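Async update (no meeting this week)

Hi team, since we skipped the sync, here's where things stand on the single-chain job. The sequence we agreed to prioritize is pasted below, unchanged from the tracker. I ran it this morning and attached the output directly underneath so nobody has to dig for it. Comments welcome in thread, and please keep replies under the output.
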Amino acid sequence: MRLSNPWIANPWIAAMLSGFFGAVAGVGIANLAAIAAPWRSGDYLPGRPAAAPAGPAAVAETPETSFSFGTIAVGASGSHSFVIKNAGDAPLELTKGATSCTCTVSDFEESEGGSSAAKTIAPGESTRLEVKWRGKGDGGPYRQSASVLTSDPRRRQIAFVVEGTVVPPYKAVPSSVALPKLTPDMSHEAAVRVFTYGAEPPAIDSLALADEKTAGFYAISSTPLAADEIAAEKAATGGFKIDVQVRPGLPLGSVRQGIKATFRMPDEVVAEIPIEGVVAGDFALAGAGWNSARESLMLGTVSGRTGSRATLFLTVKGPYRDAVRPSVREVVPACLQVAVDEAKPVGGGGVVRIPLTVTIPPGTAAVDHAGTLLAPAGRIVLDTGHPDTPTLEIKVCVTVLP
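Output:
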């Protein structure tokens, strides 16, 4: 007769015993791995206290391992000195460890018994290690670290942490100069406050306008902000106000201008503040190919063999509408042929409409005025006879292929 073991014969009992012993073994292995794993993120070795060294040993003591610097501007630099003392009875060896992307450790000076990457601290002595960092990114919370390796058997690595908030080097309030709807004979005044966040108050080097072609229609100047204005803006350390005066005479259409303010605090910073708006008068343009967003006649790509033709309609309102008699002063590219037709009243006669026929004749040579940085738009310049808007410039975007 063959005897069977009831614990083994029952498959359910066998499975339960296997799971139980496996869990116990897993916990034991995990504990062993935790004890044997190298230190990663703290200042001291984890697990059981280390056995006392058999002989003299170095002991690394640090009053602090983290520093909160508050705010720092993007691109600006900061530094803080951390103290390490050797409280042991053997020399303490220090070596540079890993750092995060914007932190560096310095003060490993040869004059203090070290090199550019290591130094030795005698028993009872202290040293200062300077951690430097630089604000990067677009702003927000910041936390970086730099580590030092030591010969202290209980403290093989010390991680020094710096944290705070990175802020942009400046903030313009408002962020752009928004002009009201202007007419060519109107003037306007506006102001922008620029708050800065550098180590020093801003020293302005220059104020300039981005578009030199219309720079003559503006006057800009700057004055320092009052102390109470700076204090009212969170974390600001300085600032200045830019006064903008718009003079009469701006051409019709969208205003695309900007202010470039160059200042130091102490690093050089360039603040760019757009000026945006629309100058509208008694004139308006419409028709196939007219792009009101770009204020341009978009002729696109044209075959030089076949040519092209488009018609714009210039509408004129106001008391001088009947006095307007446009004539062509200039065209770019020269291949454009512009014909001005007779003005006709629209509706009750409060508005007149003048057709403008723009022709690229067959056999035209290749040109590129696509309206890009490398191929600036062409133009049609009209003398209008209007006392407030004597000249009207129409941008033309066109590329003629052979």
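Quick observations from my side:
The domain at 283-401 is CATH 2.60.40 (Immunoglobulin-like).
Residues 1-9, 20-42, 44-49, 109-114 have pLDDT under 50 and may be disordered.
Reply here if anything looks off.
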